[in-house]
Amino acid sequence: MAGEPVIREMQIEDLNDVYAIEVEAFKNSTWTMEAYTRELVMNKFAHYFVMELDGEIIGYTGIWLVVDQCQITTVALAKKMRGKGYSHVLIEHIKEFVKPQADVVSLEVRVDNTPAMKLYERNGFKYGGVRKNYYGEGLDAHVMWVNLNE
After folding, report:
1. Pairing relation of β-strands 104-110 and 141-147?
2. What does the sequence similarity comment in the record state about its family (predicted)?
3. Residues annotated catalytic, as ranges
4. Most buried one in 33, 38, 107, 140, CB count within 10 A?
């Protein structure tokens, strides 16, 4: 029987596992191992977390927290762990982590990623507009946000 998930700060040593989930979750991802390394080492606004279950990394999330604004950069789970409520746990972790500093959390999600949009809606996110060609090759993004004070 599986234990409770543990969320902790992402470390450089986690990147092989994180990147394996990245490739599985986002087939056309532009994020590389080098990009994640730069985020962890050089971006003072970046905060990345992994979720472990029984010692295995099963998901991760990242944000940019700049003054009083939070932007979710990524949320991903291993395919075998989807549909079990773990994404909700990651999003709630972000909300609690940023609440002392930020009032609003925003993100972009592919317009064709219906499961992710439904997940964000269930977690209180609302539509804020469309960013045309955000992902390139004609792929738009919905901008979504949640007010943490509502």
Report:
1. antiparallel
2. Belongs to the acetyltransferase family. RimI subfamily.
3. 108, 120
4. 107
